[in-house]
Design brief:
InterPro entries: GmrSD_N (IPR004919). The protein is of the alpha+beta class. About 50% of the residues lie in helices and about 10% in strands. The protein contains 27 helices and twelve strands.
Amino acid sequence: MSEMKTCFKRVDYDLQGLLHYIDIGDIALPDIQRPFVWANTKVRDLFDSMYRGFPVGYLLFWENGVANSARQIGIDEKSHRIPQRLIVDGQQRLTSLYSVFRGKKILDADYKERHIEIAFRPRDGKFEVADAAIRKDAEWIPNISEMWASGKSSRKLVNDFIDQLKVKSNLTDEDEELMAHNLDRLFDLHKYPFTALEISPSVDEEHVADIFVRINSEGIKLNQADFILTLLSVFWDEGRHALETFCRSARQAPDREASPSPFNHLIQPDPDQLLRVSIALGFNRGKLKNVYHILRGKDLDTGKFSDELREKQFAILQKSQEHVLNLTYWHQFLNALIGTGFRISELISSQNSLFYSYAFYLIGKIQYQVSEDMLQRLIARWFFSCSLTGRYTGSSETVMDGDLNHIKNSQDATGFCREIEQMMNSQLTNDYWEITLPASLESSAVRNPGHLAYIASQSKLGAPVLFSDKKVHELLDPAIKPKKKALERHHLFPRAWLENQGISDLTIINQNANMALIEWPENISINKMHPVEYVPRLRERFTPDAWSNMHEYHALPLGWENMNYIEFINERRKLMAAIIRKGFEAMG
């Protein structure tokens, strides 16, 4: 029997040494990790822990790993093009520390360059994320990167800070001594000790990916999609790169003369979200639990691994992803959603609903050759119904698995469409429209799916803005970026008046049924007046037909200004549900 041996060794570093290795390119980031750093608050907490002398976890390196798939930390060029060590675990910590200690920019989650600015108050050793108030306060060092990037000695840094603070504040000898001590302690963080476990160079990429999956516990928790992205980096780096490029482009508005782009105003996809669409299209699966093993070449029946099977499965994924990233399909799908009235990202209550709808669009398009006009109408209604009912807000993978199983035996385009219609009809019954939906609208949550669908329906139906000649869809135009929102939520029965009537519960006062979108000048003019006061004045500006039309599309009973408040919101919820139903049925 062969003796099992450990595949790693322990190596001790100080932070200064690690930063030096990153500077020259001896330590680099492999593509099996995400390239994004923590939120600034996370970096702040890291510095606070190190300052207090707390442990912040070990690092895991891959010694002499494969260099041709490595990324460098930061955006500058390195003197050593071939790194000696790749970071397997600890990338978030090292990237954050490198950025702060070297004053280097990093790429954030939106693929934009930015600095990480962490502030420090020497009087009490407090760390904070820099903001406008801190930058104006002489008690703070607004960006601690200056401590190390300036090239100044610790003594000069201490003296300069204390001299500047003396101009604005009286300091005792004890104050100066304490601040000098705390600044020296901060400056010496470059001596902070780290322990690294270095994986042997004899370990291949697949096993390194497996180790990463098994030991990762720091930072953002990995899910099944992350595991699959790990495999993409090892076995199909071009596919991972294509996903990231698509997502980056979707966040950046192109120049007018630029080539077609995935950029849009509804959604900024992440790689794992598009990966889910590819998995649904290629493998007919909503659950990703077993897909990781499939892509590793594991036969789920025998438990054995096969390079041949792995290559076959990756070929399926490759073809599927080509369809997912096809800009024509992407734009046609988005156009279908815009046709539902969901014109802006703020109306999207469930991103799962959007991406799973994209999967069904592609399945209908690729596998069943549904005509584009029929598919657009079908997927628009499917997305609307999924968003409205919260179909994918619970156990989304389980629900999607069931939905995919529901349609997999469809024989042709007609069968596919019939199955989708049946799934919608099973939820959107008459009882749903008349009982369930009005009850679900009894909410003060701004992101209530029913309320967002109500606004989308107003947009779809060409409703006028309340007390205005403009249309709702015109003021929801995502291309318009005013300093102040064109439309504002306004209490039809003002809060102050309701409180005077003894209603103090904000969940009742802020009911969505008490809210209406109006233009902000009208919001200001109405202010705190009771409807009995402001409604007659506004009615004079409109013809009887226009007034009646406006009330219909805003679910307002005629004479509502004279109604009891509780009676009003109960009645209005029913009318709001009717508008949502009308918007849904208008999609064909």
